[in-house]
Design a protein that fits this description.
Chain lengths: ~200, ~200
């Protein structure tokens, strides 16, 4: 800390604090992406950020809370999905959402950290709870809010089940022919299913 | 080993060997179910079975091969799915498969070890490869074989994506309202989707 503070001498204190927080968050994102939830420690994050563990606790709290902050950053590209639906005609939400989903997953820059989060969520209960909160509050409830239907949340979740299941079999388990299939072919097959879940009878 | 051998004195050698193999396999199934692929060791399996590690290697080979044998046992109830379709009219395969799938997952006795395998497969590449081989050769290819369509394997995989995704969001991530929804309600929603993937246009 002393070195970083010295380098930034003369800058307003609040700005310095924001820099340190960002620096820790970047380190946390990299540590969780590389090692997963279980094998990452606050001490390891502090070491990667070049700060004392106490400072990580000061800015974020527990390991679970650092994870939540890191997941929110990693998950940010996916959180634009409800906006992608904002101007979609009702018959088009299935294709918009499916196309948006594979846009995020087909891009290695967004896929790699997402994969790490999903893997952590699937192998650790605390990580699963963080993922569940974020997925529900930031994504599914907002998508459900755009559907004017009484069972909108269940609809959004069943649509998510089709997309998430496909991501897992294609990018994690790498089942063939699914793993090598053209993304457009998959989008063409899944868009009507997602549409059916969201707006069907 | 000496104790076990002594207790079984007088029994044919081949039968003894089969017993020892079964005994190791049971221990392996329990160790992998409880600790997952990464945290289970051949030494731990040997200890749980009360035998020497060398004997585990003798009967099964590497840790990956013990895992494959254990997964095949755990996965056995799921492998009856293609038979459940054997006498189904073509318009009924979606519901039959969906109902079969949730029958296995709603039963805690079959769900608990399956969950452990799925979690291992999603967090470790070697475990993922074992799961992929078994899923492809024992389940999806056999289901695809019942569909007389050129893209039958991709169809079976997209149907599996809907079911597996739902299992993950319901039983692992435990998203609400999906996690508490009545199984019959979910089957009613997913059966037509699965039918569409398998036999639709």
């Amino acid at each position: 800390m002393t070195g970083a503070t010295a380098r930034r001498r003369g800058r307003p204190r609040r700005e310095e604090a924001a820099d340190t927080r960002d620096h820790i968050l970047t380190a946390a994102r990299e540590e969780f992406s590389e090692h997963g939830y279980e094998k990452t420690s606050v001490r390891g994050i502090a070491k990667a950020a070049g700060v004392d563990s106490a400072l990580v606790h000061h800015y974020f709290g527990t390991k679970e809370q650092v994870f939540e902050a890191a997941v929110a950053v990693i998950f940010a590209p996916a959180l634009n999905a409800p906006d992608a639906l904002a101007d979609a005609p009702p018959d088009d939400v299935g294709e918009r959402l499916t196309r948006f989903f594979f846009g995020v997953w087909e891009n290695p820059a967004t896929r790699t950290p997402l994969l790490a989060i999903v893997r952590s969520a699937l192998s650790n209960d605390t990580a699963a709870a963080v993922f569940r909160r974020l997925l529900a509050s930031q994504l599914l409830r907002r998508i459900a809010g755009r559907l004017d239907l009484p069972d909108a949340e269940l609809r959004a979740e069943l649509a998510a089940a089709q997309l998430v299941g496909c991501a897992i079999l294609r990018y994690v388990i790498r089942l063939e022919p699914l793993a090598s299939a053209d993304a457009e072919q998959i989008i063409a097959r899944l868009a009507p299913v997602v549409q059916g879940h969201l707006t069907g009878p």
